[in-house]
Amino acid sequence: MGATNERPLRADAQRNRDLLLDAAGKAFTDCGPDATLEGIAKNAGVGIGTLYRHFPTREALVEAVYRSELAAVCGAAPELLAAMPPVEATRAWMDRFVDFMTRKIGMADALRALIASGADPYAHSFELLVGAIQPLLEAAAAAGEIRPDFAADDVLMSLSGVALAASSNREQAGRLLDLLMDGLRYRAS
């Protein structure tokens, strides 16, 4: 998202950046690579110059949208753990992950175009996601709610499968997540 030595944005500039990321995420999901930068700026309520100040290229915008949404889903894990019991936090994070993946499926064409330009938006994504779900699983296991013998990366791959299988049917995805949670729970012998 930028060099670490960049100054923090002013509040209004940060608000505009956030509006652009939200509008771009929706546009890329709905229209793929056909989404226009002018339309994104208009939907964000800013001028095209503001868009280019924040994102000098289309590829920079696509990558920023992806990284912003990745940061949001990963950042949700500790917030959920602080707000609810571990097993409920784990299940709530699974919902957020499926929403994240469903949006990425909608952005597939825009992400492919980004990759074709030489960028790698997926660098470190898997590790970040495993790092987000690992504490949830550990807390739920420590609370005796789920078995401790599941690897976080295996659960994450299962979640990815749910997202792909039910990308157009959110209700079905919820049922599949419940099934996955049932598989993680302890069973009385």
What does this entry look like structurally?
- With 189 residues, the chain is mostly helical.
- The chain contains nine helices and no strands.
- The chain is elongated.
- The relative contact order is 0.11.
Amount of helix: over 70%
The rounded Rg comes to 18 Å
Give the number of DSSP strands: 0
Helix-strand sequence:
HHHHHHHHH
Instruction: Give the overall silhouette.
Output: elongated
Distance N terminus to C terminus? 50 Å
Q: How many strands, what sense, and barrel or not for the largest sheet?
A: none
Q: Which stretches are low in confidence, meaning pLDDT under 50 for 5 or more residues running?
A: none
| Classification by helices and strands | mainly alpha
Mean pLDDT: 90
- Fraction in beta strands: under 5%
Number of helices: 9
Helix-strand blueprint:
Elements: H1 11-31, H2 37-44, H3 48-54, H4 58-83, H5 86-106, H6 108-116, H7 125-142, H8 152-165, H9 170-184
Properties at a glance:
189 residues, 9 helices, mainly alpha, 74% helix
Quick structural gist:
The protein has helices spanning 11-31, 37-44, 48-54, 58-83, 86-106, 108-116, 125-142, 152-165, 170-184. By secondary structure, the protein is mainly alpha-helical.
